[in-house]
Amino acid sequence: MLNQERLTHLKQLEAESIHILREVAAEFSNPVMMYSVGKDSSVMLHLAMKAFAPSKLPFPLLHVDTTWKFKEMIDFRDQRAKDLGFDLIVHSNPEGLEMNISPFEHGSKVHTDIMKTQALKQALNAGGYDAVIGGARRDEEKSRAKERIFSFRDKHHRWDPKNQRPELWNVYNTAIEKGESVRVFPISNWTELDVWQYIYLEEIPIPSLYFAKEQEVVEYEGTKIMVDDDRMPEALRKTAKKEMVRFRTLGCYPLTGAINSTATTLPEIIKEMLLSTSSEREGRLIDKDQEGAMEQKKIEGYF
Amino acid sequence: MDIIDYLKQHENKDMLRFLTCGSVDDGKSTLIGRMLYDSKMIFDDQLAAAESESKKYGTTGEKIDMALLVDGLQSEREQGITIDVAYRFFTTEKRKFIIADTPGHEQYTRNMVTGASTADVAIILIDARKGILTQTRRHSFIVSLLGIEHVVIAINKMDLVDFSESVFNDISQAYGALADELGIKNTYYIPVSALNGDNVVDKSTHTPWFEGKPLLELLDTMDISKEQKAENFRFPVQYVNRPHLNFRGFCGTIAAGSVAVGDEITVLPSGKTTKVKSIINAGDISEADREATTQEAYAPMAVTITTEDEVDISRGDMIVHTHSLPRVSNSLKVMLVWMDEKPMDTGRTYDIKRATSVVSGHIEHINYKIDVNTYERTQVETLELNDIASCRMVLTRPIASDAYKENRLTGSFIVVDRITNNTVGAGMIVGVSRRDEDVIKRNGKHYSDAEKALNQYIRDNFPEWECKAV
């Protein structure tokens, strides 16, 4: 009788993701999981806690801190590390810190390159990781729709979209040479709706920035950004006004657009998401830099 | 419907993975774009939002280039073709769908095999003006090779043949013969116009003679559950979880069947036996309860199993029910798809990854190569990119092996080049090669096919002997 049942789509997705996470732990000697503190990372962390129960996580979490993240993200991150007892590695690009890189001053392209892409490369080189687990989903962006779940990277962390390894059934090729690595995306087949529904069902903690609240916001490069600290240029800060807003993605506060919203519960957020016609990444300024921006960034080594 | 009801309904959705086969000219991207675009209306508020959108943009709604919705990489946009496997998603109130979108050109057999490997259903597009073409035969062959049991034949561009019933019937009949030849079990025929949306989401008024369901409704209601019915329990051990001395759990994804606490199990290839002591279903784990256990679990759950006895079990082993043992052998008859620019070398050692085990081995003999267009068999010495062949594969260690037809996840493997580390081939186990079988002893006795046939004959014809089955 039991066998006649089919698992619901979320249970099937969950099982697939757990299979992928265990495959990483079994096949690689030095894996790491990227932790961005956002909702996708939260789901991934939750899945990993399930995959290895009753043990603790067999790999550390890595957060690339651009130092421009929302303050709440950092508090939330440290609290989760304490509650769940995972190893947390935080890395910021020391050269970038020295140069005082600021998205306001240097623009999103330079900031992202130095504080994110370069910082990530530094952290990966320093850690010598052979597998890097990331929370990217195939529905997020067109170039991601074609990426493998186990995505090969050469010694320079580069992705070659035209020369990917065929990936069949649930049999993943994990063979690499020293210095090479694999990016692994356990929630590739989840959509934004799946992620939210899963957070709702499993009661997964997420930062409160996802929920609508009255915040100080300013208009900046066509989007609304939140005044999170006084590094925002004073002229800009002066224009701040209070509005009910929330965030659909979380990143560097000067580069993360807020949306006007009254959604204070998960069902309300999901409802808002279903009704909105713009895609999730629209709130992220970095994708607008150039046509095919994400594909280019991925080839260079950005997640 | 309000949002809470909506969420309840979506909690219990099923998931279906399908593959679309067709070339650029068949309107494949248009069909996918149409499904992605037209399936968006979900609950009341959303419906209202969509309606106001249509009003705003007026007639352009019909004229949107659907193919652009599914277009992928920048380099491909420039070429105007799809060159690899892309995965797309959409949802209805009943199911979440994952589409594997693969190209139809011959040189890309590799990609289609890849996309087909995870699909439950295949949609084969046929241009109503052209009927069954060489590529239709190719697509159908690969679909049957990869064990897809449900095939939807979307006869497209019906608008260009005046929605002619006889054109539809002729093509359906011709395809029926092809399906029989290939042993495709379930076929469904639909007359569509992807461009105009006829019979894609809604039933078309242009085809009053058509009694079947439109495409999306068919995909929504198709019964694919029999694929997961009670089968022999197969559990490839993926990872050994050992947090402390008192706990030793074997993690993995149940590939087939079900298992319960107390079941007698055998570990292969060693043949050691024990009983299931406890089962942790990873899905049940929460932050509050990190040790939740369950009495029974079934495919495709990700679980952790502990055993009554201290038995040596490691990654790559297969745990099965003692009463339903698979064959264990190092010599296998397989169907192999070659996926590398560099030809296959008989005699060269490759790594064979099957489920969670990696064993080195080589292709000892190519029985025949099969032409994907004509299905003709030829004798060859080597395999080139996109070649498909029946081979005898010899491994350095025996593995528990099911036929791919019986079990997709334990009957499939990839071939990895030990120098380049590339995935150079994909294979499906047909059976154990009888010649030099390395058989595990079952209570000291193994029966040959002839002995089994004799046993069957006696049981069929002399029931009064009360002969036991072997």
Structural class of chain B: alpha+beta
The CATH H-level homologous superfamily of the largest domain in chain B: P-loop containing nucleotide triphosphate hydrolases
User: Which fold name fills CATH's third level, the topology of the largest domain in chain A?
Assistant: Rossmann fold
- Name the beta content range of chain B: 25-35%
What's the number of domains of chain A? 2
Structure notes:
In chain A, 36% of the residues lie in helices and 15% in strands. In chain A, helix 1 (9-27) packs across helix 2 (39-51) and helix 6 (192-202) runs antiparallel to helix 8 (266-275). Chain A is built from nine helices and ten strands. Chain A has helices at residues 9-27, 39-51, 71-84, 94-99, 103-127, 192-202, 234-237, 266-275, 293-300; strands at residues 31-34, 61-64, 88-91, 131-133, 150-153, 181-184, 213-220, 223-226, 241-247, 258-260. In chain A, strand 1 (31-34), helix 2 and strand 2 form a beta-alpha-beta unit. Chain A starts with 8 loop residues before the first helix and ends with a helix. In chain A, the strands form two sheets. Chain A has a six-stranded mixed sheet, with helices on both faces. A four-stranded antiparallel sheet of chain A has the order 8-7-9-10, with no helix packed on it. Chain A has two domains: 2-194, HUPs (Rossmann fold); 207-288, no CATH class. Chain B is of the alpha+beta class. Chain B folds into three domains: 3-227, Rossmann fold, CATH 3.40.50; 234-321, Beta Barrel (Elongation Factor Tu (Ef-tu), domain 3); 327-432, Beta Barrel (Elongation Factor Tu (Ef-tu), domain 3), CATH 2.40.30. In chain B, 23% of the residues lie in helices and 32% in strands. Chain B has a seven-stranded antiparallel sheet with strand order 7-15-11-12-14-9-8, with no helix packed on it. In chain B, strands 2-3-1-4-5-6 form a six-stranded mixed sheet, with helices on both faces. A six-stranded antiparallel beta barrel of chain B has the order 16-20-18-17-21-22. The longest helix of chain B has 18 residues, at 165-182. Chain B starts with a helix and ends in a 9-residue tail after the last helix. The model of chain B is unreliable at 41-47, 57-64, 71-82 and 436-444 (pLDDT under 50).
